[in-house]
Amino acid sequence: MSPTKDLVFNTYSMLEVDQKTKQVRVLYSSKQALIDYAYDSKTKTYHVLEGNFETTNFRVKTLNSHFKPVADYKFQSTARMMPFQVL
Hints:
mainly beta, 7 strands, 53% strand
């Protein structure tokens, strides 16, 4: 991102908002709810937690600097959700 652009994270997508032109661009979208994300400055990647609380189907997708998926990690189904940390 840059000083004139903001990253907006909502339920199903990550958006880029250009403050100068007021234009919005979809960077990443999913059919699953986006729950949280973390940016890794060393690898310049985003780690996005997405899933469905009703079906307890969760995954972490790693996105490159162009917001294209480069890795996909699926959680095993369990009776309860454990917190996780992206290293």
